[in-house]
Amino acid sequence: MLNLGVLASGRGSNFQAIIDEIEAGRLDAEIKILIVDNPNAYAIERAKRHSIEYLYINPKEFPSKDDFFIKIADELKSRDVELVILAGFMRIVRKFLIDAFPNRIMNIHPALLPSFPGLHGQKQAVDYGIRISGCTVHFVDEGMDTGPVIIQAAVPVSPDDTEDSLSARILKLEHKIFPEAIRLYAEGRLSVEGRVVKIKGYELKDEFIVNPSLR
């Protein structure tokens, strides 16, 4: 069984999607702890409902950002966490945490990286006028949304889309591909060569490609 640690700042809908897959028996993992940097994060309520340990760590209590992430790394290691999941964690992860979990931190981003990194990827896509957008699960490195890509899923973009309408469609696929990426890791099927993630025995899945029915 794979031990997970989850970092979140807000509502935690991807956190919930992972919980659901675990409880349905489709993901052989256990969430050892949820760590939040926001005491009002709704993810805390989700943790309470499912009897998952949670911890609020206030970044303002630390003399530096590095010290904050050293504390997070210590808490994760003390619970034997193997894979760290960023589920709407609104901070750029620092080197100390990355070095503690090399190629063992996953993030999901609401755009087809390397296009539209950073905040509001959905709005960037709508404003740019593209016709295909989606989401990306990637390993975390020291850049902003620059780590090796694990899985991507695509959705069509209508000329009439708003940030909210596109976000809603992308979110449906986020809830599919994030647990899928964790499952592949748990099964020992991921390896990183340079910046390319190799997936042993993996086949493309139609639901991760453009699906007009999600419009």
UniProtKB/TrEMBL annotation:
Gene3D superfamilies named in the record: Formyl transferase, N-terminal domain
Listed EC numbers: 2.1.2.2
Catalytic-site annotation from UniProt: 109
GO biological process, one term: 'de novo' IMP biosynthetic process
Chain sites annotated for binding N(1)-(5-phospho-beta-D-ribosyl)glycinamide: 12-14
Pathway the protein takes part in: Purine metabolism; IMP biosynthesis via de novo pathway; N(2)-formyl-N(1)-(5-phospho-D-ribosyl)glycinamide from N(1)-(5-phospho-D-ribosyl)glycinamide (10-formyl THF route): step 1/1
UniProt catalytic activity: N(1)-(5-phospho-beta-D-ribosyl)glycinamide + (6R)-10-formyltetrahydrofolate = N(2)-formyl-N(1)-(5-phospho-beta-D-ribosyl)glycinamide + (6S)-5,6,7,8-tetrahydrofolate + H(+)
CDD domains: FMT_core_GART
Record-marked site positions (Raises pKa of active site His): 145
Domain Formyl transferase N-terminal: 5-182
Alphabetical UniProt keywords: Purine biosynthesis, Transferase
Superkingdom per UniProt: Bacteria
Residues where (6R)-10-formyltetrahydrofolate binds: 65, 90-93, 107
Role description: Catalyzes the transfer of a formyl group from 10-formyltetrahydrofolate to 5-phospho-ribosyl-glycinamide (GAR), producing 5-phospho-ribosyl-N-formylglycinamide (FGAR) and tetrahydrofolate.
Family, similarity comment: Belongs to the GART family.
Name listed for the protein in its UniProt record: Phosphoribosylglycinamide formyltransferase
Lineage: Bacteria, Pseudomonadati, Nitrospirota, Thermodesulfovibrionia, Thermodesulfovibrionales
Gene from which the chain derives: purN
